[in-house]
Amino acid sequence: MGSVNTINPKVDQTVRIYDQFYQYDTVVDANEYDVVNSYFESVFGTEQAAANFSVTLFRIAEETNTPVLTLLAEIEDMDKIKLTQTLCYYLNGLRSPTTLLGITATSTPNYWAARNILL
Which residues, 6 or more positions from 88, have their beta carbon under 8 angstroms from its beta carbon? Predict the structure, then answer.
């Protein structure tokens, strides 16, 4: 007789994460995704914010070759502001220097260099 708690080995136990805007696509363990997503739901309160931050954490883990649960352990005791600041730090390492997150002072290019840029 079957049980609800019995895992069916014939069913794939992974979650596919994809982001069309950043062209990011990966497959992760379903249990890890549930742990990460439930943590972000407890911090931010909305499902959309939790899903976005979950994808972000998995992307950071993949790019830095760090297990996602290790990253989660590092950020678990942070408040919302410190958490956002830490994720911005990691994401700025992955992004182009012209699109850094959390930078309020914009750099002014040299006049002659800016003049040569065509839009």
Answer: 101, 102
